[in-house]
């Protein structure tokens, strides 16, 4: 990506915050154009889409390359905003949104959440091979290639990313040794297709009642959890003081600080343990245990659950989850910033594979949701726990209600655990489907 107009993160952060302020201001209108607009398009989608527009027109960018006019040297730059949002604000948001959680009530949501999660996983496992078979009928060279240039090897990294996350994607690259020079094309497909699918899910949230009616879904358990949290919030509601806000931030970022501290040592310890495993396959299956981000999210969530059994949960009455929602919206804006809408029109051959692949994933989710009458919430979060991982599953979950963010986290962490082994199963099918 070429150097954008603004490369200073302070300026870019200001642009993102102005975008969010615009979304919230216009969404608060109770009549007129914006009132009608937000009945169709959710505010969360706009928080994602507006930064994407700024990236597309070249005002901002997640990373870029420029040529030094004097030396001719290529200089690479990268914004740190997504890193800060995902490593600091996301775990803090998880803590604040989980403070008042009722774990028993989450488990009472039943088995449909897990069924939809595994349906999403199966959709990814079979979607890639089917996409290869369909594309090979009209353009076999698109899904061909030999040795380490074979397209199926590159698609294996997508399977790792869309079932687990970044650590699983890296593991698949190590296992199948796809040509590093061509790996950027697969990252490109990952970004475009996964982000477009997330945008579609966010739009669907605005029509969730109509979708649930079509699915004939029983949303009673979800509504009961939401009502329970709302009743508790009303019970402990208070006019927050500066002390309340400082304690809320202390709880959030204290947990994040400890999470980073413990994650560093746990990741190093398990990296050494995994490195000592003789079997290459088993070693790569457990690669995710060496990811600091995995441990950060897991530890932050565990701390939050423990705090929910203490008086700290009463800080929900002072607006803990609202502050957590602010952090989530900032994260959404930084994710939107990574999406260049113009990329959709480049490299169509790989994009088409990704679109077919994701369509099969989506179609299977819709079919199973219809059969078991699962709410749209389980469909959307079950999908994002696979495709988006711990960074975006809580975003989609909290869009339904802040109390539901933990459901997204728990499923996403589970996705990390099964990501590599499920991706290996998918890759076996990808190789079988690839043209000889």
Task: Map the helices and strands.
Elements: H1 9-27, H2 32-40, H3 43-56, E1 63-67, E2 74-78, H4 81-98, H5 103-107, H6 112-138, H7 151-163, H8 166-176, H9 180-205, H10 208-215, H11 220-236, H12 242-275, H13 280-285, H14 292-307, H15 320-337, H16 348-372, H17 376-387, H18 393-400, H19 405-433
Antiparallel strand pairs: 1-2
Helix pairs in contact: 1-3, 1-15, 3-15, 4-12, 4-14, 4-15, 6-7, 6-16, 6-17, 6-19, 7-8, 7-9, 7-19, 8-19, 9-16, 9-17, 12-14, 14-19, 16-17, 17-18, 17-19, 18-19
Task: Give a written overview of the molecule.
By secondary structure, the chain is mainly α. It folds into 2 domains: 9-79, no CATH class; 88-433, no CATH class. It contains 19 helices and 2 strands. A two-stranded antiparallel ribbon has the order 1-2. A hairpin with a 6-residue loop joins strand 1 and strand 2 (74-78). Helix 7 (151-163) packs antiparallel against helix 8. It is globular. The mean pLDDT is 86.
Query: Helix/strand-derived class?
Result: mainly alpha
Give the overall shape, derived from the CA principal axes: globular
User: How many H/I helical runs?
Assistant: 19
Over the alpha carbons, how many angstroms does the gyration radius reach? 22 Å
Query: What spatial order of strands do you see in the largest sheet?
Result: 1-2
- Total number of strands: 2
Instruction: Give the low-pLDDT segments.
Output: none
Number of domains: 2
- Main sheet properties: 2 strands, antiparallel
Helix content: over 70%
What keyword list fits this structure?
436 residues; two-stranded antiparallel ribbon
